[in-house]
Amino acid sequence: MFKVKKKSAVLCILDGFGLRESNLGNAVSLAHTPNLDQLSRNYPNSTLTTFGKEVGLPENQMGNSEVGHLHIGAGRVVQSMLPRIDEAIANEDLINNKDLLGMLSDTKLNGGEIHIAGLISDGGVHGHVRHLKSLMHIASNKSSKVNLHLFTDGRDVETKTSITDLESLIYDLPSNVNIATLMGRYYSMDRDKRWDRTQKAYEAIANGVGRIYQDPFKAIQVSHDKGITDEFIEPAVLSEYKGVKGKHDGLIFCNFRADRARQILDALTSKNFNGFLRADEKVFSKVVGMIEYDSDFKKKFKVLFKREVIKNGLGEWISLNGLKQFRVAETEKYPHVTYFLNGGSETKYDGEERSLVPSPQVEAYDQKPQMSAEEICNSLISALESNSFDLLIVNFANPDMVGHTGNLSAAKVAVEKVDEMLGKMCASIKKVGGEALIISDHGNCEQMYIGDTKKPHTFHTLNPVPCILYSERKKVGIRSGSLIDIAPTVLELLDKDKPNQMTGSSLLYWQD
After folding, report:
1. Nearest 5 degrees, angle CA 167-CA 170-CA 172?
2. Which of 42, 93, 382, 456 counts the most CB atoms within 10 A of its CB?
3. CATH number of the domain that 141 lies in?
4. Do 355 and 318 touch, CB atoms closer than 8 A?
5. pLDDT tens readout for residues 240-262
């Protein structure tokens, strides 16, 4: 343990910022980044692994912001929902789940229909099509009629995989299962209170209102022919579907990540809902979800997979040691630096303060690649220079959110804006005598093209991410590691021992 005078430490997370040697489609290497270049030249730096088994995912499964922030805060490997659900399918725990079977039985007994909603891609970030297929077959065997509400991806996978995804689904579609609606995740998975998008998804699912098609493939092809990728397909309703039949209908929601599930579930299940006016106020009273998406939701429906309780994560341990902490991010990443970093808990610890900066209201972030980085940086600097906090955690969303658009020129602007903010942040840190650990949760914007083509690459990568120590400490180096090593490293910067539950190790070491 390095014995140093107490000072503030900043944990700066550059969301979606990876490292890659090739310049082709590489927004990181093509951008003008004088501050990052100077930090890399003059301060200890290494790389981190953010994917696969090192963060509780299947081997070679790309990391994501939820898993990344969960492991940054946990300091240990936490088995993620993707392999947990896969295992439950393989060992038949899912098919024998009492809560699931009870809801299916009750719905059938009362003459209701089952509705299953979720992503149909194999991206594995928010959901996986094999989970939807498994639940579809279980429901088919226990129900009279099953309606599917399919969310096309185009963000965590290539931009136009939905036809192939749908072909795979339809190949073994049971006779009592119907595709009711189909829509891009832009509408059904918004998380930034853009209620106009959620309303269109709700109207399609609840009331059968939307563009009418006889054939789901036609709905996709019409969009593709207009240059609309899977993410943005407008809600389509298959001609036979007229909406939720009545109060005895049941809903199974297949996605296993909370942040992009909350809005649509709120609209579909809450009686006291104020996101928008529901003309025909249909809500599901019988609901089964993959996880506890929100503390309020657990009062309303059954959960198939309970979250692992993470004892003594970074935020809790900081609080138990009597230290003060500050979290700041814009809307798009606010749950990540609060809920996910706190182990999937809504708890706000003693001594923890938060600052939520609104994300810009644009259709897509390549329209404003700067996002709210300036306001976030200003909030951070204000907190830092108040000398009120021991640990300050900041997330810059630009590299990830703009990276998801597939727009290389916009991603370069995003990287350059973040670089500018790093310069301001480091100047403030130097002013107060603090230090910073600058990392990323996963790669994205360093790979904006698929392979050697110029076809847009919109999803996360397996590339290493940076780990930079901005500090005036002498003869200190930083090893390469994984995200579970970040919490122990931060605690060592603050001259605090890590709790026994953390299996990660500090990356700091003495240099000769």
Report:
1. 120
2. 456
3. 3.40.1450.10
4. no
5. 999 999 889 999 999 999 999 99
Phi, psi dihedral angles at 59 (to 5 degrees): -55, 130
- Report the interhelical angle of 216-225 vs 162-171 (nearest 10°): 170
Amino acid, single-letter form, for residue 450: I
Half-sphere exposure of 358 (CA within 13 A, CB side): 5
The model's pTM is 0.91
Q: How far apart are the first and last CA of the chain?
A: 16
| Mean pLDDT, range 449-462, rounded to an integer | 95
How far apart CA 158 and CA 174 sit, in angstroms, is 28
249 phi, psi to nearest 5 deg: -70, 150
Q: Which residues belong to the active site?
A: 65
Q: Which residue, among 495, 378, 503, 379, has the nearest Cα to 9 in the 3D structure?
A: 495
Question: Which domain does 120 fall in, by range?
Answer: 82-305
Domain-located, residue 245: yes
5 assigned to some structural domain: no
In a shared domain, residues 379 and 448: yes
Instruction: Find the helix or strand (DSSP H, E) in which 10 lies.
Output: strand 9-14
Chain centroid offset of residue 448 CA: 19
Residue-level pLDDT at 2: 44
Q: Which of 216, 128, 134, 208 is nearest to 167 (CA)?
A: 216
DSSP-derived secondary structure for 114-134: EEEEEE-SS--SS--HHHHHH
What residue type is 466 in one-letter code?
P
- Does residue 247 sit in the same domain as residue 346? no
Provide the token pair at 391: 């640990």
DSSP for 250-304, written as a single string: EEEE----STTTHHHHHHHH-SS--SS--SS----SEEEESS--STTGGGTSEES
CA 475-480-51 angle, to 5 degrees, is 160
Backbone angle region of 52, left / alpha / beta, with phi > 0 → left and psi within -120 to 50 → alpha: left
Quick one: 403 and 276 in the same domain? no
